[in-house]
Amino acid sequence: MINVTHLRAFHAVATEGSFSKAARALNVGQPTLSSQVKALEAGYGVRLFDRRGRGVQLTDLGRSLAEVTNRLTSLQEEAEALLSGTENLAHGTLAVGADSPGDAMDLLAGLRARFPGLGLKITMGNMESVLADLRDYRVDAALLSNVPIDNHLHAVPFRRAPLVLVAHRDHPLAKKKLVNLKELSGHALVLRERQSVTRDLFERAAVKTGLALNDVLEVESREAVRAAVAAGLGAGIVIASEHEPHPGLVTLPLGPSTIEVTEYAVCLRGRRRLSAIRAFLDLAVEMADASVPRK
């Protein structure tokens, strides 16, 4: 049977990124911690870390084991919370993932105001990467757009926002009040990566209207979309709530029909009753747009 103390030592090093930091986190001597990790490796004849100077890097097997220990640690914390029946949010940390900073920061600000002792951590990424973090227990809850149907997830509708066109003030379409998708034919476009909700929704709408996407610059962030548009590399497609005003750019609604994104506050279904996660979901319901239908 695996030695739980050795596994705990491995998890601390994997989380902290070094033996010295892990030893301080566990309040043990570094030689003791090192011997525990070495015993784990020797017991199974494996290498979990590559030692490089003062730091360490997980091997492929180490990364896989770290995903397991992340889940084990979260499950232990859940068990403690359930057994103690605590509703105290004066301490602890809530890790949140999000695919857009704007609304996520509003929600976290509301949590901080209500529970000033609760630590908050936020991780940004596209929907696929944040969902992976959620399923692997790297984050506790998330704010995501157009969440797929999944019986393992609990999702609360939060806000709606349309896709809009962002163009340079000198762009041929910049003076229009509304841009139909077909009018984008022949114009260079700046789009997010294919894994993004924005790109997926726009491409679906383009197919329906017969718009061919022949001249596309693909970038990996909303900031890169704005920078590319400002540099005259094309017109960009973004979610309206994510766009920050820029003196050289204009924002134009898209038609003929609105392309909308719905944001959801999400967690794993089995964890929704934990106090910090429940507080996150309850606040999302309180702050939700009145126009967003409740499930």
From TrEMBL:
Swiss-Prot/TrEMBL keywords: Coiled coil, DNA-binding, Transcription, Transcription regulation
Listed name of the protein: LysR family transcriptional regulator
Family, per entry: Belongs to the LysR transcriptional regulatory family.
Pfam families the UniProt entry points to: HTH_1, LysR_substrate
Organism from which the protein derives: Hwanghaeella grinnelliae
Signal peptide: none
Classification lineage: Bacteria, Pseudomonadati, Pseudomonadota, Alphaproteobacteria, Rhodospirillales
Chain coiled-coil ranges: 58-85
GO molecular function, one term: DNA-binding transcription factor activity
Residues annotated as domain HTH lysR-type: 2-59
Cited PROSITE patterns: HTH_LYSR
